[in-house]
Amino acid sequence: MAMLIEELIKSIEMWLKLIKKPQEYIDPNLDPVLLVPGVAGSILNAVDKKTGRTERVWVRILGADHEFCDKLWCRFDPSTGKTTNLDPDTSIEVPEDRYGLHAIDNLDPDMIMGSDCVYYYHDMIVEMLSWGYQEGKTLFGFGYDFRQSNRLQETMECFAQKLESIHTASGGKKINIISHSMGGLLVKCFMALHSDIFEKYVKNWIAIAAPFQGAPGYITSSLLNGTSFVHGWEERFFISKWSMHQLLIECPSIYELMGCPDFHWEHAPLLEIWKEKSNSNGESSVVLESYSPLEAVSVYELALSNNKVTYNGEKISLPFNLELLKWANKTREILCHAKVPDKVKFYNIYGTNYETPHSVCYGSQNAPISDLQQLPFLQSNYVSVDGDGTVPTESAKADGLKAEARVGVPGDHRGIICDRHVFRVIKHWLRADHDPYYNPINDYVILPTSFDIERHREKGLDVTSLREEWEIVSESQDGEENADSGKTKVGSISVSHVGADNTTWEEAQATVIVHHKSEGKQHVELNAMSVSARA
C-alpha cells in the first residue's frame, strides 16, 4: 500500500478513537502464541567446535558472502536426511534469547540503515505486545536451521520440546501457533508425524502464506540461478546469487518447496526452453519445449551436471541432487496424509493481488538455447499467476486440511506478516473464546466487515484505491447522547508529498462515513485513494 494512504488511514483511525496512545498492558488471560518463521527467517550462528567462538552468519551485511560460503555451505547426507557443513569444525546454532523471539525478530540487529529489510516477525511481535502478550509468558518464537528438511527428526524433537516448555511456562494453557511461509510445512510435518503431541499442546494453528503445494516458479529459478533475499543498495553488500545458489542445491528444504507434481493445478507450472534444433538436412529451426514438474528433472540434471565449487582449495561437484529429490518426495507423501486433530482449529491466510512466478522460460525465439548447461548463467522470464509474489494463491489455499476459515489478503510474501488487516484477522481468531475484538484500554469492540484494495497504473500514474468497513460496538459514554447522535457524519482528509529532489510526488484522499448508532453498533465506511508518480 502506498505510504501516504497508510498514514492517512492511521489518522482517520485516531480520529475515530480506534487507536490510542500505546500503553503498557498485559492480559493474563491470553493463551500463549508460538511464532514459526519460514525459509531464511531465523538467525543462524556459527560455533567453532575447537574454541567455542560464536558469530552470526545469517543474516549479516558486513563480510556476508565470505562467511556465508565458509560457514554455511553444506552437503546432504542421505543416510541421515541431514545437510552437514563443509567445514567440519563448525556447527550451526539458532539463538534462544528472548524465549526464541530474538532469532526471528530483526535478523541483523547490528544493521541501522535500512533495517526494515531484515525485519521478520518484528512488526507482529510489537503489535501482539500491544494486545497484552508478554514475552516468555504468552509469546514465544521457534527459530530453526532452515537449510534442513522440514521433517528432520532433530527439528521435530526440538519443536516437541518447545511446545512442552511453553505449556509449562504458561501454566498448562494450550498453544496458538502462527506460522509463515515454509514454517507452515514444518508445522504440518510435525502434525502428521506427532499428532498426539500436537493435539495435547495445540489449540489453534494459523498458517500465513504457506506454500502447501510448493512455489514452482520461485524454486525453479532458485535451483538453476540462485536468489537474492535483499534488493536495492543492500544487495551489493550481501550474499551473491551464485553463492546462494550453491547452498540451495544441497538444501532439503528447497527441494521440498518444488511444485507438487501430483497436484491438479488449474494452470500447470512449466519449465519452458526455446531451443535451436537441426534436421538431417542441416536446416535449423527454433522450437519452444515445455516440461512438466516431473519432466523438468532431466533438465535440472543436465543443466547442473558440471556445477562445482572450490572449497579450501578442493573442487567439489554440486549437481542436481537426486537423493535429495527422493527425500523431498517422501516428505510430500507425509504432508499429504496430515490431518488436523479433532480438538485443534486450523486457519489459513494467503496472499493475493501480486504477480507471482509460476512457469519459467529460458531463451527466446530470437535467442534460442543451444546448450542446457548455459541455463545457470541466463536470466529467466516468468509466466505469472495471482499470489503474493512468491507463493501462488492456488498453492497457499490448497492446504488439504479441515479449515475453520481461509482468508485471502492483498499483500506480498514478506509484507503480509506486517499487514494491518492480517493483524485484525489474527486478533479475532486468537480471541475467539472471549470477545475477540475487546480492547480493555479503549473499551470498545471492532468488527471488520469488509476490506478491498486495488492497484493499477493509468497514464503513467500509480493508483491505489481502498475500501474498508467496520462495526464499532461500545457502551454509551457520558455526553455521547446529544442532538447530533442520530445523524450520519461524513468527513474527509487529504495529504500530499513531494520528494526532496522533486522527481516523485504522491497525493492521497479519504472519505469516512460514520453512521448513527443503532442497537449499540455504529457502522463506519472508509474510502481512500492515492495517486503517485515518478519522474
From TrEMBL:
Might you name a Gene Ontology BP term for this protein?
lipid metabolic process
Q: Which InterPro entries match?
A: AB_hydrolase_fold, LACT/PDAT_acylTrfase
Q: Name one Pfam family in it.
A: LCAT
Q: Which GO terms describe its molecular function?
A: O-acyltransferase activity
Q: What is this protein called?
A: Lecithine cholesterol acyltransferase
Q: Which organism is it from?
A: Solanum pinnatisectum
